[in-house]
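Hey all, sorry for the wall of text incoming. These are the two entities for the joint prediction.
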Amino acid sequence: MEMNPARRTVLRGASSLGALSALVLAGVLKPTAVYAAEWNKAAFEAKDTAGALKGMGAAASADSKDLVLKVPDIAENGAVVPVDVLSNIPNTTSIAILVEKNPQPLCAQFDFANGALPEVAARLKMGQTSLVKAVAKADGKFYTAQKEVKVTVGGCGG
Amino acid sequence: MADPMKIRAQMKGDVTEVRVLMGHAMETGQRKDAAGKAIPAHFIQSMTVDVGGKRMVDAQIGTSISRNPVFGFKMKGAKAGDKVVVSWVDNKGDKRTDEATVA
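and here's what came out:
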C-alpha cells in the first residue's frame, strides 16, 4: 500500500500576540529579594498624587499643551485602560503617568535616552473614575497634562 | 521563571516602533483572596529597553499598571537588524530578559 504524500499544507501562524493565557506563577519566593536600586519607593508607595509628585521631585509643575495625553473618555474595564503619552516639549527626558484616585497613584515613570522618542503607550488599572495625569520632565522642569476617565467597572477590587 | 515576553520591533520610516507584552500578574497587594486574606503584592518594578546596544528606555513601574503589561516605545537612530533587548525585574527579585531583532 502506498502512502499518499501530504497534499495539504497546513500553515499555522507561528505565534499570535495576545495569547498569553496560561500564566503559571510558580511561587518563587526569594528571601533575599531586594528592591531594584533605582525604584523610587517614596514616589510609588505614596498614597496620593501630591505625595507621589513630591517623591518624584515634581511638586512644582506647570500645565503644558505640548504634552499630549490620550486616554479614552469612558473605560468599560478599569483593569485595562489604554493610555498614550507624547511630549512635544523640547528635551523631554522622562514621562510619568499617574491615576489620581488609585491607592498608589504613580503608575510608571519612563526615562528616555539615546534616540528614544518621548512617547509611550501603556495600559493602566483604574479603581474608579479619576483624573489621569501625565508628567513630563524637560530641562529639569516638570510639565503636566490631565484628563478624566470615567470607569464603569473598577480594576483594583477583588 | 516567568513566561517569555513578546517583543515586536519594526521600522516605520526612520522611526523604530517597539512593542512589548510581558506575562505578569501585577498583583497590587490591595486584593483579598476568598478567605479574606490579603494577596501579597507582586509586580514588575523596573524595565529596560536596549536597541543596538544602547539603553533607550529605563522605566520604573508600580502596581497601577495592568496585568500582563503592554508597553509601546518609539526611537530614532536604530535600523533593521539591530538587536532589541528587554529586561524586567519584579518586587520579589524575579527577572526575565528577552530579545528580538528590528524588522
